[in-house]
Amino acid sequence: MKKFRQVISIAFIYLRLSNEDKRQGESGSITNQRKILENYCKTHNIIIANEFVDDDYSGGNFNRPGFKAMLQALDKDSKVNMVITKDLSRLGRDMSESSYYAERYFPERGIRYLAIYDNFDSEEDNFLAPFQFAINDVYLRDSSKKIKTALHTMMDRGEYCFRAPYGYKKSPDNNHLLIPDEETAPVVKRIFSMAAKGYSTWAIAEALTKDHIYPPLKYRVLKLEGINSGNAAIMSNEWNNTTVKRILKAPVYLGHTVLGRTKKVSPKSDVKLDLPKDQWRITLNTHEPLVSPEIYERSTKYLGKRRKENEQYEHVRKSVFGGISYCASCGAAMCSSGTVYNGEREKYWYLTCQNIPKRSKNHCEHGARIKYDILSQAILNELNELISLTDEQKRKITLEAMEAAGDMTVRRELEKRIAACNERLDAIDGLTMKIYEDMYAGRIEEDRAHRLLDKYKAESDDIAKTIKDLESQKQEVDETKAAYDRFFALTERYSRIDRLTPELLSTFIERIEIEPKRYPPGVEVHARSKIPYEQTIHIYYKFIGERPEILKNEPA
After folding, report:
1. 190, β-bridge pairs
2. In Å, what is the CA distance from 400 to each residue of 64, 396, 548?
3. What CA–CA distances, in Å, run from 162 to 20, 21, 176, 237, 537?
4. Which of 114, 169, 372, 492 is the most buried (most CB within 10 A)?
5. pLDDT by residue (tens digit) across 158-183?
6. How many CB atoms lie within 10 A of CB 59?
């Protein structure tokens, strides 16, 4: 081990342990790493400012909470000048990233990095470092291959080798066997029972939330050992229909083990790819079921049925306004609603504020709703009107926009001031020339002439700076014109638009906001009422912003 050369240093110590490292025994444990680093720092008069730990994290990548927290702390605490690990593998096993942090990132920030068991010191010439990084990388790949082989063997035997799903826990006698969890198994049974009776997934989620039952993620964070319960505060207490659907679709509750649905891109990545069903590892009757096949079938009978029934109408189901249409009352996205009847969608198709349903967390009392074909026709008419404008009409619209923004008044004032400044510069040029002529003709003393020339030079410089500032302000004012020029340049690409597409809308429009319908005062409105109404659509175009459109229609 190298002796530390400074008298006083302040260090962060970093400790990491993966599942594979745990299999090597106590020598590599977090506790043992801590003792080694504390003893080293005590021997070498190093002050430990803080420690950062990643327990149960692979060295394959650096997306670890403890490591990222250490980097943030280094940015904030300028007194810390050292980072120490037990060895290079604790820093990480990815060859390129480990080398980057050890030999570039820390030294470039004035941080000395030590890996004491590998005799690595970032302030020394580490000739063996490339080999050490490479060995750690090879170890990572070899370990990954061994772990993958072991997992596949356990999967083929039907052994549950991952975290127990909601409703189950691991048997105390066999870590690969699932047994019902006394707290959560009744909740799973209740979900299936309610679904079998015809309750919707939304209704089930609302009932569970009302009864103050923790959803799976909240329960796991609060209850399971090894998970920081401090994270529980940011976890939702509310169930949602997606969670209920996920439980209802899971064959694990029939007593079957289904594993290997995904695979990692590489040992160094956390990204997982879905595998086709024929590659899943399915083993039947591996543990106690929570529901019978009859209840499971009845519970899942109608899941996704409407979607499947409507797949034949896919060509008329997708809204082109996705991502740009919003409710003007609450700002929520407008979603497709209505139905398909005899293959006809447009007649029964609406865009509706997604917060209108009373079950919505942010229920909108005055949510917007508009017929899809009415909105489409309004936008189509508006775009074709803009495309058909003559050059003179475009110029007039641009000038009106500049007038409305106060640009023209400001622009005229700026032009007057710039003109006045230029007139004064011309006058100073004339006076300067006259002074030179008088000085050379002996009509004025040389000292006095130079004083006058210096005075006019200083004034000329000030005026030139003023003109530059005014021109800059004038350019800012002209941004309205530039914006309209850019927008109208888009319209030049088309002669007429016959059909709206998402690509076309994104070319012209940033956002559409739809207000609720407005009926005449004192009129009582019922469903399917044939009462005239007004409805405002706010269209925010690229570069130029809003242009409102009022619709007057009879509801169908």
Report:
1. none
2. 56, 6, 16
3. 15, 18, 8, 25, 52
4. 114
5. 566 667 889 998 888 887 788 999 99
6. 29
